[in-house]
Amino acid sequence: MRVLIVESDTARAALWRRHLVEADAEVVLATGQAEAARTLLLAPVDVIILGVALAEGSAIAVADLAGYRRPEAQIIFVSGSHMFTDGSLFRLCANACAMVPPDVPPADLVALVEHHGRPSRG
To answer: Cβ neighbours of residue 95 under 8 Å, at least 6 residues apart?
Structure first.
């Protein structure tokens, strides 16, 4: 499974990456919109962990690009604010599957990634 983490907090991203790699995921890190866009244009991803408050660029722009170029990729949004707590994010982004706080336990995040990143059985 290929995971793209788009997060400005490099320590947090490294923590998540370590736990995902231990769960046999292939992980690519991006600290902002430009790096995330390059990854989305060049390679498929199964799950995107996307920080809402990026230091560089816009998380919504990353989600829009993912929806267009990688519609199969599920997005787990990470937000510590009350923005989008009304569920509007799920109406804005067709491939949004979850929203978690920045202090989500890494094991819980891994479980979400594994759940949403596995191929559908139909």
So the answer is: 63, 66, 67, 70, 71, 72, 73, 74, 75
Rounded distance, CA 30 to CA 33, Å? 8
DSSP 120: P
For the chain, the residue count is 122
The tokens describing 22, both together, are: 């231990």
- DSSP string of 93-116? -TTEEEEE-TT--HHHHHHHHHHH
**Per the confidence metrics, is the pTM higher than 0.70?**
yes
Per residue in 51-110, pLDDT (tens digit) is 999 999 999 999 999 999 999 999 999 987 666 566 667 777 889 999 999 999 999 999
Dihedral sign computed on CA atoms, order 28, 20, 11, 59:
positive
